[in-house]
Each structure stands twice: as structure tokens, then as C-alpha cells.
Design a protein that fits this description.
Elements lengths: L1 E2 L9 E5 L8 E5 L5 E6 L8 E5 L5 E7 L4 E7 L2 H20 L1
Antiparallel strand pairs: 1-2, 2-3, 3-4, 5-6, 6-7
């Protein structure tokens, strides 16, 4: 688990876990009032270890280890509004280039 001190993900606590024993693992967002919701699904099985940390670049990094394959997968997660904003600027550039 880790806390988003930078505020990019809402200053909330994020935890890797399950809602119930038979559910798949996920990243859960826990707000200061104690409410939680599923933030993202991850591909960990019962015996796998994982880790979650916020980097200095304000992105969330999730490590998933699979004992079956003995591979570690590290995913970089950025907040959706930043992705949409970048896509918007890129799309605007494409439109301008097509008009020329």
C-alpha cells in the first residue's frame, strides 16, 4: 500500500487486496472517510506477491510477480485526466497538420 502524497491521485491511500476471499486481486482506493472502491484490476493469483509505490514523477507503479512464470511485471499508471489532456493536444496537432 502507499499514500498519494503528491495529490495527483487525490491524496488517497491505495492498497492491493481483495474484497472477499474468492475475488481477484485489485488496487483499492481508500478515502480518508474509510470508503473504498476498486481502482484497477491486476493479474495476481493467490500465491503471488506485488507492490505499489508512487514515484517522483507522480505516477503509480505496480509490480506483479507470478510464481508460475517467475516474471515480474511493472506497470506505470498515470491519472486519466492527464491522459485525456495529452490526447486532446495531440489530436489538435493532427487536425492542424491535416489542414495545411
Amino acid at each position: 500500500m502507499d499514500i498519494d502524497y503528491s495529490g495527483v491521485f487525490g491524496n488517497d491511500l491505495y492498497v492491493i487486496g481483495k474484497k472477499s476471499l474468492n475475488d481477484n486481486f485489485g488496487i483499492w482506493r481508500v478515502r480518508p472517510d474509510g470508503t473504498s472502491n476498486l481502482f484497477a484490476n491486476i493479474n495476481m493469483s493467490y500465491n503471488d506477491d506485488g507492490g505499489l509505490v508512487f514515484g517522483p514523477d507522480h505516477a503509480m507503479y505496480v509490480a506483479e510477480y507470478s510464481s508460475a512464470t517467475q516474471y515480474v511485471t511493472i506497470s506505470r499508471i498515470v491519472p486519466e485526466p492527464a491522459s485525456i489532456m495529452l490526447l486532446g493536444f495531440g489530436a489538435l496537432g493532427l487536425i492542424r497538420n491535416r489542414r495545411k
